[in-house]
Specification:
Radius of gyration: 20 Å
CATH architecture of the largest domain: 2-Layer Sandwich
Helix content: 25-40%
Bound molecules: nicotinamide-adenine-dinucleotide
Shape: globular
Number of strands: 15
Number of domains: 2
Number of helices: 11
Strand content: 15-25%
CATH class of the largest domain: Alpha Beta
Strand order of the largest sheet: 14-13-12-11-7-10-9-8-15
Amino acid sequence: MADKLRCGVIGTGAIGLGHLLSLNSCPRATAVAIAETHTQRAKEASERFKIPRSYNDYRELLDQPDIDAVTIATPNHLHAEMTMEALKARKHVLLEKPLATNAKDAARIVETAKKVKRTLMVGQNFRFNRYTQMAKMLIEKGEVGEIYHARCFWLRRNGIPRIGSWFTQKKLAGGGCALDIGGHLLDACLHLIADFDVVAVTAQTYAKFGPRGLGEMDWGKGEVDPAKTFDVDDYGVAFLRLKSGRTVILEASWAAYVPSDVREYGIDLFGTNAGLSLYPARMFRNGPNGYETIHLSVPKLPHSEDRIHHFVACVLEGKRTLVPLEESLHLQQVLDAIYASAGTGKEVRLK
Ligand SMILES: NC(=O)c1ccc[n+]([C@@H]2O[C@H](COP(=O)([O-])OP(=O)(O)OC[C@H]3O[C@@H](n4cnc5c(N)ncnc54)[C@H](O)[C@@H]3O)[C@@H](O)[C@H]2O)c1
């Protein structure tokens, strides 16, 4: 492989443009092609980023032998098929979250990645956040002690992606806010405590704003269904039991009447020596002068803050990524369990 990774970007909507920006600023990669079904968006992205090749059908992009890797930023229901096709075409893949819309498809993807021996990483950007990395270092040094409980949340007030777009349709998205933004925080939280071994989930979800056309924000470039379909959750809460005895609470809302003077998203870790709170990062503990709050800053990061730069470096250097596939699969199993529990009103056992 050459010094620079030659990349294609599949889907140039809201987040695909972010991928192109990131590749543009990456000294070790070049974006050489895009695939996008929407003609105008394809034209704008090619012109803005001076991309020489543009395809309507992503399979044509995958047929190009000079492309080493692809990033996939398409609606969730396309992740499984596109990722498996890309891996079979022997491309390395950076896939936007979630891995798939359900755990069954997620398992098929992971199996394919193992067979073809290519790098596949889900773009869990919260793991690359400087405060997450700082917290991870402190936990690994033992500063927090044993973490026995954690809570994580992302509570938007008016943050439903455009109503009627793929985001708000169960068959295209796989779920609503619990999967979309809850998945980010839950992944970062389980990554911090280094424990994805969830054995039981109790959850409830609600749809109180979307069906009334309330709480929308202007996110997502995809087409809007004229019926303005909204058949996903706009609030979700889950209680997780881990095999280790730890517990985790997740709360996510796309729209809710909640205070604006507190963090919109965060993680709180309850340890035997200290508490850790994100975002930003603070540590709480009993010091010689009583209860202390320490504001944490990051002198040196172990990983790039840009997930795509990290992915590129891992492919070129043959290194493991910061987002192991097994963990992305476990996360998807937990998300499935959240929806199963919300659907039945019962606890769901994972093992
Ligand atoms: N990491 C993050 O923080 C983050 C943030 C937002 C979205 N996402 C994820 O990124 C993905 C895309 O989200 P988005 O907000 O950019 O959505 P979007 O609707 O803005 O963009 C999706 C794009 O995919 C294109 N597309 C659809 N079918 C295609 C096909 N067959 N071939 C090529 N292109 C196709 C659409 O035309 C559109 O331009 C989703 O999986 C979402 O969960 C991640």
